[in-house]
Every structure is written in C-alpha cells, then in structure tokens.
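### Sample
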Amino acid sequence: MDDAQRPLPTNASLSSNGRDQSHQEMFQRDLLCMDSSFADATYTPNASTLTDASPPPYEGEAPVHPQSGSPVVINDSLRNPTIEKLERVRKWSVNTYKCTRQMLSEKLGRGSRTVDLNLEASIEKLRDLRSRYDNVTKLAQTLASQTAQVTQTQKLLGDVFADLSIKTPELHEEFGFNADTQKFLSKNGETLLKSINSFTAGMNTLVNQTIEDTMVNVKQYENARIEYDAYRTDLEELNLGPRDATTLPKIEQAQLLYQQHRQKYEKMRDDLTIKLKLLEENRVKVLQKQLILLHSAVAAYYAGNQQKLNQTLQQFHSRLRTPDTGLQSWLEEC
C-alpha cells in the first residue's frame, strides 16, 4: 500500500506495552483536574453576579434594575423633601402676595387695618426718642473731638510757655503763670474728655443696641399685624360670597389660617408691650446716671478752672500793683 493509503497509528499501536497506556490515562486525568480547578478559580461574570455586584443605591435613592422591563419608581424618602420644599415656596409666595396686597390697600386707603392705640403711641414715642437720642450722641461725639483738640493745644501751649520761662529770664514769672494755667486747663480737660466719652458710649449703647433691639421686635410685630389683616380680609371676602360645596372647604381653610395668624399677632403684641415697658424703665435709669455724671464732670471742670483762674488773676494784679523800680525803659531814660 502507498503511504497516503496507510492507516493512522492508534494509541494502542503507539503504546509499546500496557504500562505506557496507563501513564497516558493518568496524564489525561491530571489535565482534567487542573482544568476544573482553574475554572473554579476564574471569575466569570454573568447576569446574576452583575446585578449583585452593582453599587448599592444612595440613601433615599430608588434601586435600579437595568435588566428588568418595569419602570423606575421614585422612593418616598426622595419625593417628600422635594415636595416639602415646593410646598414651602408656594406658601411663601402666597403669603407674600397677600401681604403686599394688604399693604397697598392700606396705603391707597381701601383696606382696613388693626390698630392698638396705646401700643402705636408707645412705638411712635420710641421712634421720636431714638431720633433725638441719636442727635445727642452725635453732638456729644463732636464735643469730645473738639475738647480733645483744645486739650492737646493747651498742653502744647503750656510746654511752650514753660520753655520760654526758662529761656527768657526777664519774663520768667509771666511765662510761668501762663504755663501753669494752660497745663492745669489741659489736665482738667482730659478729665472732662473721659466723662464725655463715657456719656457718648452709654448713649451709643442705648440707641444702637437697646433701642435697636426693640425696634427689631417692632418690625416683627408690624409684619405679624399685616399678615393678620391680610388673612382676615380674605376670610371676610369669602364669607360675603356664596356657600356651596366648592367654597366651604376654602372658607374652613381660610378660617384656620386666620386663627393661626391671629394667635401669632396677639403673641407678638403682648411680647412687644412687655418689652417696651422694660425698655422705658431701663432707659430712665441709664439716662439718669449718665446725665448726672456728665453734669458733675462739666461743673467740676469749670469750677476748678474758675478757681485756678481767680488765683492766677490775683497774682497778676498783685504783680501789677508792685512796680519794678530797678529797671527803667529807654523811653523813661529819654
């Protein structure tokens, strides 16, 4: 037979004996074991593992199933904050509209407003006092600035007089008297300046902190009053209209909102009344103390200066009544 027509050798023909065949079978079994162990150790992703390995959803986020055909549903924990925020914006818009309409109606003379005569009078008095106290504070600051300049000038002038008293022997006493006077006035001026600064600080605290804090409460009270009148007007308009299945729920809702804003308004009114009374007592005590201190400082300043000036004038007069006979002017010599 030709080589092309010869049959291929089989395993049995390749094995020289039974021992070679047994070795080959063991080798094949080892290969099978290695393939199975390698397959177990190798990670092969499938649909289930991909689904399980997907990252967990964030808190409040709905789980997503990419292979399912059902639509994605938003969880309640994600929907509620958004709805609440939109609801707050809607309420704020409605409340702003109602309050703006109420304010315009009052300015045009078409709407009615709730008035507490005693409280309104106290608020108007507080505003007037605040304006006047603010003017007093500014004037006291101006006085303090000018007093500081005068005191500094008197101190420099006293130093110059003292220097001239030393360098001018023939006018030693005259320059000395003026130097002592200016230094004394400067020293008293510094004491007066401290008192004016203390008075200014007290007035500044009263006007810009105590009264300003109360004015913040006044602003909150006025806002609560406008809201109360706005919802009161809405309720009155609904009560004047027809009552049917459509308007009754609106009337009940308006009645509920009216009661809420009425309670808020009454609370703000009572709190402001108490605060105004406390402010009145505190204002009187603070001003009484500050005014007494300022008056005492000014009186001591001018009383001490007057005493010093009287002494200086007496010394000058005594000096003028005792002429110096040892020196003659050149006019007398002529």
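The radius of gyration is 50 Å. This sample (AH domain-containing protein) is used throughout the tutorial notebook.
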